[in-house]
Specification:
This protein is mostly helical. It has eleven helices and no strands.
Length: about 300
């Protein structure tokens, strides 16, 4: 760990080693001073006397460096304890944070995941057609919650549409407030959270809603879809024609069971949302809704899964 390395190699090694050298030097200076100033005795000292004198010089030095070594070990253990305490505090702070609160706006992190980090090459004017998958799909079930009524505080259409587009980042306070208000309604919350999951999973495969502008369908097509029409009458809703995005999305539906379940959940709830709010919107509001990130994901997944016929 970098903290431990700094403490052991800089603070400990420099400070404690310096203290050790200072004590050793001081002791050797005192020994030399003693030998220089001590009165000379008669005759030569015996072997035991020389042994005792040598031990008296060497043992204090050994004790000093033993203390230096122990001090280094204590410093390293203290640094490890501090690092472990800091890590536990971070984990405790994460566990005590808000979990899935309906008034929590998850959009800033989502928006950064959905927005492409680098400019994507311009889409071809006439993208090559790609055959739709011929696999026996796990067909997206028709919505059974179309009559589901909001059970939370009423949210006006503009606020809900702004929430369905999600914030562009942590500074998009207007969209964050709209998303927080919309999440207070349980029905809207299910749609928004499933849309967030789908768009985030697609962004993980480099399919970004921001670079998938749809070919707009007329508002009356959305109204027919809200009234329950399917097939060729609403085929124009599949307005995403990016061949690469369609191929990736189809592959994920085929091979990724988690994504397939998430996509079915999203399509079902977004279908129910359309049935609830589109009859109350004017043409301009429908156009803005159709250009939101959530609606683009609905168009893409609905097209590759056969929802629009």
């Amino acid at each position: 760990m970098s903290v431990i390395a700094r403490i052991s190699s800089l603070a400990t090694r420099d400070r404690i080693t310096t203290v050790g050298f200072a004590l050793t030097g001081g002791w050797l200076f005192l020994v030399a001073l003693f030998w220089l100033l001590a009165p000379g005795g008669e005759g030569s000292a015996g072997g035991i006397a020389r042994l005792v004198a040598s031990a008296g010089v060497v043992l204090p030095v050994a004790l000093v460096w033993l203390g230096v070594s122990l001090a280094r070990q204590v410093a390293i253990l203290r640094a490890e304890a501090d690092e472990l305490r800091s890590h536990l505090n971070r984990l405790r702070g994460t566990e005590e944070g808000p979990q899935d609160e309906v008034d929590e706006a998850p959009a800033p992190a989502f928006a950064s995941a959905d927005r492409k980090p680098a400019a994507k090459p311009a889409q071809p004017a006439a993208p090559r057609p790609v055959p739709l998958p011929t696999r026996p799909r796990a067909a997206v079930p028709e919505p059974t919650a179309r009559a589901e009524a909001p059970s939370g505080p009423p949210v006006d259409a503009i606020t809900l549409i702004r929430a369905l587009n999600f914030p562009d980042g942590p500074d998009d306070h207007e969209a964050i407030d709209a998303l927080r208000m919309a999440l207070k309604d349980p029905a809207n919350s299910r749609v928004l959270r499933s849309a967030q999951d789908v768009v985030t999973l697609l962004a993980g495969r480099d399919v970004y809603m921001d670079v998938l502008p749809p070919e707009p369908a007329r508002p009356e097509v959305w109204r027919r879809f809200a009234d329950g029409e399917r097939g060729s009458a609403v085929a124009a809703l599949g307005g995403i024609h990016d061949a690469d995005a369609m191929e990736i999305a189809a592959g994920m539906l085929d091979q990724d069971e988690i994504f397939r379940d998430t996509a079915q959940h999203f399509l079902r709830h977004f279908d129910g949302l359309i049935g609830r709010i589109v009859p109350e919107l004017d043409d301009m509001q429908i156009s803005v809704l159709a250009d939101s990130r959530s609606a683009r994901a609905f168009m893409l997944l609905g097209r590759v899964s056969g929802t629009f016929g």
